[in-house]
């Protein structure tokens, strides 16, 4: 008996199908027994097939307890068969209910497979997920519906509530959340990455972020994704780039998140307003980088083609699979080349402008003498060393950087970091930057640039709260004393960025936003990877904001084509301009304006240019006067 019970227990724990099979066997056994007894005891009552059918219907009927009206061949056995049927039917109902409950519980846990094709897969969860959803919705808003499948080690309901709490996804975007480990190949297979259009691997803010990113790339390889699907991932430590690219394969595009964030912070500090330009270039709503056929520009030199296109800013050439940004003026455009353009509408057709550059409105002011800068960094985080190193690369000799923070990680690294700097003198001290007295004693007004960093040891909410407090103190000091310096603040969350805008800060940087936009743009348009690599790489091309008075005459209307020609005299490419917002209410950053547009620049306005690190005018570069004279001769 014990052995029989042991076998029964093993059969039951196998699942619903085993129990269902047992119930079917019991029903058949009872039906066969009843039919046999009927045939044996009452030979004239019915034949065997009819008896089997009668026994089976009575066994499976939950309501047949009393014998049927009229003569019955086995009236005394009918209640026994009917009671057996009730037990079997009750067990079947319980089995179905248990199966439905398990299925619904599985759906709530988010473990069901995603059956999609051409969707975007996101592995991991961070603040960047909301930016990714909004950008994908904006990019696909021009037509069709897109699906985003998110796999994260979180409860599915919690993910859906977080997404709905920020902003309800638009109709053209379907978001599918699944719970699982992004580093487990079995869990990764839930979101069907092998049929996706692109896979984005998100990192986290802890120290194990890169390790999990690399494991996720290996899990994708185990799931059979590469090389058919575009993979995009981000790592925080440059030393892990080689390992991440090896794990992702030759088709994976790995972004150095912290290095790019440090460069954007430093560039924005030296060129206030630059984050808006990057947001426009990387976002879906404004100007974007695209590739077009050269058409009637074949045979022309790159320098002559710059002011020609009315609705596109030519910034480089794609030649034999490689990208050349800002090539030499004499470079001839070949029929096999592709133009690298900044255009407001990626589908617009480029055409020639009717405007011609006017050399009489161009100012060739000659050599610019580099001047040393003084930078005050308030706060510290994991990107601090990269930020100081980037300041050293970009600032002239005899510049100074002073770091003030209460971060215990800062002091041990300062000695070794100072020994690697060539242009900057680095000093540091400990202090609570959220206290007004500490900031007042620093002499904030004596610095050219003030940079406030978010503390990554704290939660994003707490870090931004402390950053906002420091920002308000500095802004009040500057306003009451009339200090003139650039003030750039790093925020951890995009939602807190909107709170800081009321403080009239020169620039607000959300590193996660910049790197998130970059990863989305690369995932959607892989050909742009080399363009952005050059823009964000040390020693490559860079976007700068220069005084408009360095290019054209002020207070007089000039065609934008003239601005483009003036920038080319310095070896630069003008891609837009910025009107000072404090002086005029219509001020804003304008990228890729029409070449025929008339612009009146004032003293505080600026031109946005693309220039090479070797051709920076802060290093003493003189304008190409011969180019200006040739241009003047052609117009004359």
TrEMBL record:
Tell me which UniProt keywords the record has, alphabetically. Ion channel, Ion transport, Membrane, Transmembrane, Transmembrane helix, Transport
Provide the CASTOR/POLLUX/SYM8 ion channel conserved domain boundaries: 259-352
Taxonomy, superkingdom: Bacteria
Stored SUPFAM superfamilies:
NAD(P)-binding Rossmann-fold domains
Cellular localization per UniProt: Endomembrane system
**So where does this one cross the membrane?**
12-42
* Pfam annotation, one family: Castor_Poll_mid
Which InterPro entries did the record assign? CASTOR/POLLUX/SYM8-like, CASTOR/POLLUX/SYM8_dom, NAD(P)-bd_dom_sf, RCK_C_sf
Report if keyword Transmembrane helix is assigned. yes
Q: How the protein sits in the membrane?
A: Multi-pass membrane protein
Q: Which PANTHER family match?
A: ION CHANNEL POLLUX-RELATED (PTHR31563:SF10)
This one is known as Potassium transporter TrkA
């Amino acid at each position: 008996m014990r052995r029989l019970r042991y076998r029964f227990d093993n059969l039951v724990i196998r699942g619903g199908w085993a129990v269902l099979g047992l119930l079917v066997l019991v029903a058949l056994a009872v039906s066969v027994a009843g039919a046999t007894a009927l045939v044996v005891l009452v030979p004239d009552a019915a034949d065997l097939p009819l008896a089997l059918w009668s026994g089976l219907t009575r066994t499976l009927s939950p309501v047949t307890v009393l014998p049927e009206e009229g003569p019955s061949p086995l009236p005394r056995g009918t209640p026994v068969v009917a009671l057996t049927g009730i037990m079997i039917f009750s067990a079947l109902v319980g089995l179905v209910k248990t199966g439905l409950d398990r299925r619904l519980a599985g759906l709530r846990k988010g473990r069901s497979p995603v059956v999609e094709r051409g969707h975007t897969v996101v592995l991991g969860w961070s603040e960047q997920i909301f930016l990714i959803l909004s950008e994908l919705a904006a990019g696909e808003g021009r037509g069709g519906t897109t699906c985003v499948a998110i796999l994260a080690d979180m409860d599915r309901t919690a993910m859906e509530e977080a997404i709905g709490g920020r902003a309800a996804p638009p109709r053209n975007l379907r978001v599918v959340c699944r719970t699982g480990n992004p580093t487990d190949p079995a869990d990764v297979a839930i979101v069907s990455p092998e049929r996706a259009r692109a896979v984005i691997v998100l990192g986290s803010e802890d120290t194990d972020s890169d390790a999990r990113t690399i494991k996720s790339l290996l899990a994708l390889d185990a799931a059979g994704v590469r090389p058919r699907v575009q993979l995009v991932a981000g790592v925080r430590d440059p030393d892990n780039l080689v390992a991440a690219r090896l794990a992702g394969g030759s088709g994976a595009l790995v972004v150095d998140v912290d290095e790019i964030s440090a460069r954007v912070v430093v560039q924005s500090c030296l060129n206030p307003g630059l984050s808006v330009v990057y947001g426009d270039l990387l976002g879906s709503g404004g100007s974007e980088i695209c590739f077009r056929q050269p058409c009637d520009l074949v045979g022309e030199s790159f320098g002559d083609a710059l002011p020609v296109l009315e609705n596109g800013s030519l910034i480089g050439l794609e030649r034999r699979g490689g990208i050349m940004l800002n090539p030499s003026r004499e470079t001839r455009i070949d029929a096999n080349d592709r133009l690298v353009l900044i255009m407001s509408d990626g589908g617009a057709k480029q055409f020639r402008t009717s405007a011609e550059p006017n050399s009489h409105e161009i100012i060739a002011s000659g050599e610019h003498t580099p001047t040393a800068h003084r930078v005050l960094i308030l706060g510290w985080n994991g990107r601090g060393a990269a930020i100081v190193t980037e300041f050293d690369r970009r600032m002239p000799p005899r510049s100074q950087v002073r770091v003030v923070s209460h971060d215990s990680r800062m002091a041990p690294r300062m000695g070794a970091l100072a020994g690697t700097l060539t242009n900057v003198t680095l000093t540091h001290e400990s202090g609570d930057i959220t206290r007004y007295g500490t900031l007042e004693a620093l002499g904030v007004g004596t610095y050219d640039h003030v940079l406030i960093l978010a503390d990554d040891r704290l939660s994003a909410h707490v870090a931004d709260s402390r950053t906002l407090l420091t920002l308000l103190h500095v802004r009040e000091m500057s306003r009451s004393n009339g200090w003139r310096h650039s003030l750039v603040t790093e925020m951890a969350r995009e939602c807190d960025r909107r709170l800081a805008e009321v403080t009239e800060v020169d620039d607000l940087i959300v590193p996660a936003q910049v790197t998130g936009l970059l990863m989305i743009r690369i995932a959607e348009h892989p050909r742009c990877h080399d363009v952005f690599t050059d823009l964000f790489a040390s020693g490559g091309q860079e976007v700068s904001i220069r005084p408009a008075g360095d290019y054209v005459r002020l207070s007089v209307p000039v065609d934008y084509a003239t601005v483009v020609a003036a920038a080319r005299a310095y070896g630069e490419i003008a891609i837009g301009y910025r009107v000072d917002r404090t002086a005029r209410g219509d001020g804003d950053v304008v990228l890729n304006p029409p070449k025929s547009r008339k612009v009146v620049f004032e003293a505080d306005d600026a031109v946005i240019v693309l220039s090479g690190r070797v051709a920076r005018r802060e290093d003493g570069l003189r304008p190409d006067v011969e180019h200006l004279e040739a241009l003047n001769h052609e117009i004359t």
